Amino acid sequence: MARPQAATTADRSSPPPGIAPDQPLLAIGFLLGANFVFTAMDGFAKGLAGSGMAAEQIILLRYALVSVLLVPAVLRHWYARPWRTSRPVAHIARGVLLIGSATLFVHAMVHLPLETATAIGFVSPLYVTALSIPFLGEKVGIRRWAAVGAGFVGVLLILRPGSDVFQLAMLLPLVSSLCWAAGLILTRQMRGTEGPLTILIWSTVSGLVAIIPLGILDWRNPTPAEWSFLVAIAICHVAGQYLTIRAFMLASASLIAPFSYSTLVWAILIGVFAFGSYPDAPTLIGGALLVAAGIYVWHRERLITGMPTNPGGSIAEVAEASKEDR
Fold first, then answer.
1. Closest to 124 (Cα-Cα) out of 314, 301, 251, 320
2. What gap in Å lies between CA 144 and CA 296, rounded to an integer?
3. Which residues contact 80 (CB under 8 A, 6 or more apart)?
4. How far apart are CA 309 and CA 125, in angstroms?
5. Less crowded by CB within 10 Å, the N or C end of the chain?
6. What is the C-alpha to C-alpha distance for residues 261 and 220, in angstroms, rounded to an integer?
7. Roughly how many angstroms between the first and final C-alpha of the chain, as a whole number?
8. 138, 155, 156, 146: which is closest to 296 by C-alpha?
9. Alpha-carbon distance 311 to 241, whole Å?
10. Residue 115 to residue 109: CA distance in whole angstroms
11. Is 156 helix (H, G, I), strand (E, B) or coil?
C-alpha cells in the first residue's frame, strides 16, 4: 500500500488505462458530507452519554454493527482469505488504540461542549509528526517543528490550565488523539504488506473483542428514544465511511485532506443548534491555530514525503490505499 511520490500524486492528468480521471470537486463535496455525518454521529453519542448510557456500551453497539456490515465484504472475498496476515500483533494493537480513542472521546463529550472536544482533537496530526521520527524513521525539519509548537500553543489557549475554564476532562481528547495518532502510525507501517480489507477486518474485530467486557459491565437496556439515537449513530457511521471512501477514490489525499478540518465548523454549528453551546474567543483562536498548524504540516509532508497526514483518520488512510490498489 505504498503511496506514490509527491510528483506522481499531484499529477493526475493522465490516469492509467481503466481508471477514471479524478473528480476533485465531487470528492471535496463527498468529504464535506462525510465530515458532517461523522460530527453528527458525535452529537448523537454526546446525547446518549448525557442520558446516562455508558460510553463503552455506545461504542460496543457501534462496533457490533460495523462487524455485521463487514460480513458481506468478507464473504465476497472469501477465497482470497482477506483475514490472513503476517502481522497480527500490529493489527490488534491498532484496533485497541482506535477503539480506545473513540471511547475516550465519548467520555470527553459528557463533560465538554462538542466543539471544544473536537478542536482539541485536531492535535492528532501534530502527534503523528512527532511519532513519525522514532517509529517511521522520518526526518522532521524546523518548519514542521515550528508548526507543531504553534499547534500546542493553540491547545493551551483552549485548555487554559490554572483558570476557571480548565477541566480535567479536557485531557481526555488529548489522550484520545494520541491513541488515534498511534493507530495512524501503525497503518503507515503496514503499507505494502497488508490490504485495506485486512486492516478493516482485524481492527474492527480486535476492537470489538476489547470493548465487549467493558461494554457489558454497565449494560442497561436502551429506552426507545435511546434506540433511535443508536440507529442514527449507525446510519451516520455507515454513511460517513461510504462518503469518505468515495471521496478518496475520486481524488488524491494530497488534494482533499485539508477539507477534513471542516469538522470543526460542523461541530460549532451542531453545538449551537443542538446543545446551545457557543465557543468563546480563546477556543476559536486556539482551534484556528491548531487547524493552521495541521494544514501547514500537511503541506510540508506533501512536498517532502508525498505522504501527508490525513486529519480525517484511519478510514481516509485505508481509502487512499484502496484507490492505489485498484
1. 314
2. 8
3. none
4. 6
5. C
6. 35
7. 11
8. 146
9. 15
10. 9
11. helix
Copy the grid coordinates of residue 209. 473483542
Question: What does the pLDDT look like over 235-246, one tens digit per residue?
Answer: 888 788 788 878
Nearest to 189 by CA among 74, 295, 97: 97
What single string gives the DSSP state of each residue in 13-33? SSPPTTSPPP-HHHHHHHHHH
Helices (H), the chain: 6-10, 24-50, 55-76, 88-111, 114-121, 124-136, 142-159, 171-189, 196-217, 224-250, 253-256, 262-275, 281-304, 314-324
Concatenate the DSSP letters of all residues of 71-110 into one string.
HHHHHHTGGG-TT--S-HHHHHHHHHHHHHHHHHHHHHHH
Q: Is the pLDDT of residue 118 over 80?
A: yes
| Cα distance between residue 187 and residue 318, in whole Å | 8
pLDDT of 293-317, one tens digit each?
Answer: 988 888 888 777 666 666 665 655 5
Render the burial of 145-184: b for 16+ CB within 10 Å, e for the rest: eebbebbbebbebbbeeeeeeeeeebebbbebbbbbbbbb
State how far the Cα of 66 lies from the Cα of 225, in Å rounded to an integer. Answer: 21
Asked if 85 and 202 count as a contact pair (C-beta separation under 8 A), the reply is: yes
State the pLDDT at residue 1: 37
pTM above 0.90, yes or no: no
Amino acid, single-letter form, for residue 11: D
Cell (9 digits) for 108: 470527553
Assess whether pLDDT exceeds 80 at residue 77. Answer: yes
Angstrom distance (rounded) from CA 170 to CA 120: 8
Burial class (CB in 10 A: 0-12, 13-18, 19+), 224: exposed
